[in-house]
Design a protein that fits this description.
The protein is an all-alpha fold and 38 residues long. The protein has one helix and no strands.
Length: 38
């Protein structure tokens, strides 16, 4: 039971980190595109 909970916690953290990184990359690429257009 505890191990299953730990795995779920780790997996959710991993997914959240991945989504945050993806969002950051999108924002950064948008910003760089804006800078190059400007």
């Amino acid at each position: 039971m505890y191990v299953k909970n730990f795995i779920a916690e780790f997996y959710s953290l991993f997914i959240a980190n991945r989504l945050y990184k993806m969002n950051y990359d999108l924002r950064f690429s948008k910003k760089s595109k804006f800078c190059s257009d400007f």
